Amino acid sequence: MSRFSPADPKTPGSCYAVSGQGRFVSSELTRGPWNPDHQHAGPPIALACRAIETAGQEHGLSHLSRVTANLLRPVPIGELAVEVEADYVGRNAGHFSARLLAAGKEVVRFTALMQRESPIELPASVPGHPLPMAPRPPDASPPGSFPFAGKQLGYADLVEVRIAQGVLWQGACAVWFRMRHPLIDGETPSPYQRVAVAADSGNGISAVLDYERFLFVNSDLTINLLRRPVGEWICLDARTALG
How many other β-carbons are positioned within 10 Å of the β-carbon of residue 132? Predict the structure, then answer.
């Protein structure tokens, strides 16, 4: 079976193409491992984050500190509509709701918190709170490959992965993700969109079951961000527990 490469002329240039106001046509780069007609949840969640960011910025809110995605149905590869509304906006924070629709049917529902970013000088007496660190940086981490890579064009071609710790798809694992292609043609993905594309893969990179024999898709996903992510590489540290 032939292996697709990011430079292959058959590979789309982005996850989505704009087809109208709030409407987007998805490419094969969004395809997940479970069904050839369904998207991996990372790209559509990132698409909603993009719309929520835009809505927040209209009120001077630039930090997406939390987003929760309720995955109601599989997201088909096709045209999607994105709708966002402000539930409440105050001086320093705003609550937003969003949803993704396919053929008029709601497939994902979101709630999000946007916050205002302002520099604050803290007293010297405040104890430090060091942020978690990846086991090793991406340039010191060997490349990895998803077990479904090369079978068909999809998510494995959208992202480059490097193993910071552990073994991919064999239990607890820390993996660096970098998008090879933009979310929207001609746009640079925001830090929040990069996180969203990676975040839904926690159950996969730390999987302890064979994905071809067992189905273990996420039914929801919550992303909490203490600060704005930096750089192209996002490290996902995941552990699977069976219960």
Answer: 7
